[in-house]
TrEMBL record:
Keywords: Membrane, Transmembrane, Transmembrane helix. The chain crosses the membrane at residues 30-50. It comes from Ornithinibacillus bavariensis. It comes from the Bacteria. This is Uncharacterized protein.
Length: 60
């Protein structure tokens, strides 16, 4: 499940940006970019759980 969290956080950041920038309030832009930055940091953190397909699997 952790391998899919990168895509989930990127999708959440896109949704936050689209919804946050559509709402025209005073601090909505700064808040939406801040939440997007946090989501992208989490997405970068969870990239370590994506399996590396380049390394062959060893057989015993």
């Amino acid at each position: 499940m952790k391998r899919y969290l990168t895509a989930v956080f990127i999708a959440i950041s896109v949704v936050i940006l689209v919804l946050g920038l559509r709402i025209d309030s005073q601090w909505t832009g700064a808040a939406s970019w801040g939440l997007t930055l946090i989501c992208l940091i989490f997405a970068a953190y969870f990239t370590k759980y994506i399996p590396d397909e380049k390394t062959p699997k060893r057989r015993k």
